[in-house]
Amino acid sequence: MTTYIRRGALDIASTLDQFIEQQALPNTGVDFAEFWHSFEQVLTEFVPKNNALLEKRSALQAQIDTFHTTQPDASFAQYKAFLQEIGYLVPVPGDVSITTANVDPELATMAGPQLVVPINNARYALNAVNARWGSLYDALYGTDVIDDEDGAEKTARYNPLRGQKVIRQAREYLNDIAPLANGSHVNATRYDISTGQLLITLIDGTQTELANIGQFLGYQGNPEAPSCIVLVNNGLHVEIQFAENHPIADADPAGIKDIFMESALSTIMDCEDSVAAVDAEDKTLVYQNWLGLMQGSLSTSVQKGDQTITRKMHADRVYTGVNGQALTLSGRSLMFVRNVGHLMTNDAILFNGEPIPEGIMDGMITTLIGIHDLRRNSPFSNSKAGSIYIVKPKMHGPEEVRFCNDLFNAIEDALSLERHTLKMGLMDEERRTSLNLKACIAEAQHRLVFINTGFLDRTGDEIHTSMKLAAFAPKAELKTRPWIHAYEKSNVITGLSAGLSGKAQIGKGMWPIPDQMANMMEAKIGHPKAGANTAWVPSPTAATLHALHYHQIDVFGLQQTMVQEEFDGTDTILDIPLLEAGRVLSAREIQAELDNNIQGILGYVVRWVHQGVGCSKVPDIHNVGLMEDRATLRISAQHIANWLEHGLVSLEQIDETLARMAALVDEQNAADAEYIPMTPNLNQSIGYQAARDLIVLGSVQPSGYTEPLLHARRREMKASLAAH
């Protein structure tokens, strides 16, 4: 049972209260009593506003439901006029141009990969913050980017045949990154800077230099025999590392041991979709890890064989520049923190006896912790520009963005921060936001640093919004329909027209299959080609590989060719991706869809509810590992709920499939010692019941969100585990 400490009108869970007093507040310059007094004032002003916005969401959805049930044959013009009449579609503002200042180059003027990791997992968080640099050799050797043909299989011990393929491919990438004036890096036998310039000797004995000598920035070690040289291309840095008495370098004609890529320029430390945090204990861990990152003290121990390795944050990388002066590059990914959206409450703090909106709590506490970075209470610096970067998810339309902006103003005032110290990352993942994106940007124009599309949540909201109209197309077909392409393009063009290029990130979504890097390399180059200067990847390895795309595409140059492009995708975005009129799916097609969706739901939910794992690689029905979080769950649950609503599937069919897939998921997880099976007593399995609720009650969940049901079931599970 939670013990609370009374402070004014607030009751704070003792574990959180102690953390704030003893760990978070010291050295911030913020007084303990004043902090809680200011917090109470913020809640007094913003809790009623938060509640009113949620009520408006429900009211709009109720009006849309009524329209679809009473006018199912309405024309498109009637539908669009109705959305304008009820305020779902708002007038498009005139010229909008963001004025955000004090933005770090990782977000404003550099293009590269972005990671999203659950902040409650210290190992994942450290891996991500340290993924600013990654070994290209390791990324190629350990993934399917390099094929297994001709004896080049991945083996327990180093396979020199595979290694040679890796080296050749890496040198081919060097030709893309920093081409030579003559010849190829594949034929280089020496890299020499003894004259102060970079000279490359080729296999035939001739010497050449870089086609663009300005790409050579500096080196480490002795210029006669450097340990590494650093190059730059499209704003991204690359190290060519050398060594003596090293097995790989000794077999390399130029003595190269590795090529290190500047990889994940930024990371979102996530308090939201990838995290299972349902109470004061969970939230305190979230905040403790954020504090460790802001103070540079977070560490974790990893067992490798007989050795215990302590992981901590990497230092900056220092070189001798071509001018003889020290050159320093960041050794860490720039960190955002993603707060929770407006919907959920959390009883870690009670206000007038009621749990407070979790988004307000996150805003106040993660900002307090961010002050440690502003005051340089760390051996490392996150934002050299003096900003705190907060991603706000799941906002519906400009009114909710305005609320968030006003909340950030109030938090800055409460903590004596300069106006617009808090920067906003805006997730364009809800239908009312993507349709009104320009108006949303206008509401945050002084602090916006990021807009990002999110196909899975966006599709979940697409289904829920039009739940009552008709059955949707099969899930895999939804991403092929015109609406999604218009949504993705509109996001980029709207962002560019609002002046984001050179000031903020325009981002794209996740590659979900971490074991299929060859396919990622084929597909994900489409994101920078679309004008996005960042995109999400599922791992540090994927970040190193995806970084190659930003060497191949000059994103900011491309954006300049797109900045005058006009595109109004509203009507196409409003093209609801329903099952085509007259199309009848076979029983086999319906059952296959149901099997696939339900297996994925169960595989994710049982870990979330039983183990508190909010993000993990979950095997799909074909045993392909997919990165899953609540966004993937939302789309799958809403899709089945929609088919149930319109009679394509029955409740009996759903229950039969749930039982059959539960046995499969248990089998897939048999090797996990921490796993709690659902079978044979399905009625006693809290995780199983959560999954069923998400489907059967999906049509009445607010915006189709999974959090209310998941949180309730996870709390039930924690109570059950505590009782035993």
The CATH superfamily title of the largest domain:
Malate synthase, domain 3
Rough outline: globular
Count up the helices: 26
| Strand content bin | 15-25%
Instruction: Look at the helices and sheets and give the structural class.
Output: alpha/beta
Highest-level CATH class of the largest domain: Alpha Beta
Number of strands: 26
Approximately how much helix is present in the residues?
40-55%
> Within the CATH hierarchy, at the fold level, what is the topology of the largest domain?
TIM Barrel
* C-alpha termini separation: 15 Å
Task: Give the strand order, joined by hyphens, for the main sheet.
Answer: 3-12-17-20-21-22-23-24
- The figure for the number of domains is 3
> What integer value in Å does the Rg equal?
26 Å
The biggest beta sheet is recorded as: 8 strands, parallel, barrel
Query: What is the name of the CATH architecture of the largest domain?
Result: Alpha-Beta Barrel
Nearest-integer average pLDDT: 97
Pathway: Carbohydrate metabolism; glyoxylate cycle; (S)-malate from isocitrate: step 2/2
Catalytic activity: glyoxylate + acetyl-CoA + H2O = (S)-malate + CoA + H(+)
EC number: 2.3.3.9
Organism: Opacimonas viscosa
